[in-house]
């Protein structure tokens, strides 16, 4: 399964340092991720491979009741390399791993 979507970059309000930035996986794509048969992981996370622009890395997406779906952490190195700015749309391709 490979999902591609565009969503804005946002900062987690609980932490005002520069480390906690996310993109919310849209509802339809979050529903598809929730149906992936994977072994249980901490916090309900799902390991994924992500591509944004020319940058590809592995991380996990995490379920968020506040965001009504999964959230994807956006590392500072990725934000810098791809020139991502707060509130701007980010095109993301992600694929669950460990299937």
What is the tally of beta strands? 6
Gyration radius from CA atoms, angstroms: 13 Å
Fraction in helix: 10-25%
Query: Which class best fits the helix and strand makeup?
Result: alpha+beta
Mean pLDDT: 89
Question: Strand order of the main beta sheet, please?
Answer: 1-2-5-4-3-6
Q: Give the oligomeric state.
A: single chain
* Element pattern in H and E: EEHEEEHE
The shape, in one word, is globular
Uncertain runs with pLDDT below 50, 5 residues or more?
Answer: none
Terminal Cα span:
10 Å
- Describe the sheet with the most strands: 6 strands, antiparallel, barrel
Would you give an account of this structure?
- Strand 3 (about 45-50) and strand 4 form a beta hairpin.
- The relative contact order is 0.32.
- This protein is of the alpha+beta class and about 100 residues long.
- The longest helix is centred in the N-terminal third of the chain and has 8 residues, at about 25-35.
- The chain has a six-stranded antiparallel β-barrel.
- The chain starts with a strand and ends with a strand.
- The chain is globular and about 35 Å long.
- The protein contains two helices and six strands; from the N terminus they run E-E-H-E-E-E-H-E.
């Amino acid at each position: 399964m490979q999902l591609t979507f565009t969503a804005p970059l946002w900062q987690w309000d609980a932490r005002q340092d520069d480390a906690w930035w996310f993109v919310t996986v849209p509802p339809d794509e979050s529903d598809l991720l929730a149906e992936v048969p994977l072994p249980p992981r901490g916090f309900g996370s799902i390991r994924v491979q992500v591509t944004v622009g020319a940058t590809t890395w592995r991380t996990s997406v995490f379920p968020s009741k506040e965001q009504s779906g999964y959230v994807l952490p956006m590392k500072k190195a990725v934000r810098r390399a791809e020139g991502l700015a707060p509130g701007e749309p980010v095109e993301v391709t992600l694929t669950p791993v460990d299937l």
